[in-house]
Amino acid sequence: MKTRTTKELVQLSLFVAIIVLMAVVPFLGYIPLGFTRATIIHIPVIIGSIILGPKYGAFLGFIFGLTSLVNNTFNPTVTSFVFTPFYSLGTYDGNFWSLVICFIPRILVGIVPYYIYKGLKKVKDSDALALTCAGVGGSLTNTLLVMNMIYFFFGQSYASAKEMDISALYGAILAVIGINGVPEAIVAGVLTLAICKALLKYGVKK
């Protein structure tokens, strides 16, 4: 049991290191698009969730959220106030809900994929299907929760920062989900399948 715990902590440390590296290397984990950032840093969180379980996965999600908080505080875009209470744009300030948006969806990214993977494995014993759906589901958990929370908690401020009418905001959010979120989910599904399949095989051999 002690050996197993030590192994898990070493693996957890490696995943944390990968997440931090992706966060600090420009254009790697957060890809700037001017008005927002495309995200692929959630992929090691998804993989960590499946390999290490939901408890460690939630911790990796917290690290993901922490990197987002730091990134949006010290390297902000015009809408960074929705992710950090320490940044403001004119009259638009971040607040407590910024922390909710920054952390809760990202923590769930470390939990949801594990249960999707385990649930689908019970229904159909196919690693390929379960891993792909877990990757897609984890990515969409982040995108759908973040974008909808922005709409509900910062709708008017977000619309003003993007210089659009509030009535057009949800359409713009759906566009972001389609343009950014869907490709991110596809990439997450493919990489989760490829990487997790190799890691799980290695784990069985060990």
Describe the structure concisely.
This protein is mostly helical and 206 residues long. It has one domain: Arp2/3 complex 21 kDa subunit ARPC3 (Orthogonal Bundle).
Record keyword descriptors for this entry.
206 residues; mainly alpha; Arp2/3 complex 21 kDa subunit ARPC3; two-stranded antiparallel ribbon; two-stranded antiparallel sheet; 4 strands
How does this structure look, described?
With 206 residues, the chain is mainly alpha-helical. It has one domain: Orthogonal Bundle (Arp2/3 complex 21 kDa subunit ARPC3). Helix content is 74%, strand content 5%. A two-stranded antiparallel sheet has the order 1-2. It has a two-stranded antiparallel ribbon with strand order 3-4. The model has no long low-confidence stretch (mean pLDDT 89).
CATH topology: Arp2/3 complex 21 kDa subunit ARPC3
By DSSP, the count of extended strands is 4
- In the predicted model, the low-confidence regions spanning at least 5 consecutive residues are none
So what's the overall shape?
A: globular
Q: Give the averaged pLDDT, no decimals.
A: 89
Q: Order of strands in the sheet with the most strands?
A: 1-2
Measured as a percent range, the helix fraction is: over 70%
CATH architecture: Orthogonal Bundle
SS content category:
mainly alpha
Compute the number of helices. Answer: 7
Helix-strand string: HEEHHEEHHHH
Counted up, domains total 1
What fraction of residues sit in β-strands? under 5%
Level-1 CATH class name: Mainly Alpha
Based on CA atoms alone, the radius of gyration comes out at 17 Å
Span from first to last CA? 15 Å
Q: How would a crystallographer describe the biggest sheet? A: 2 strands, antiparallel
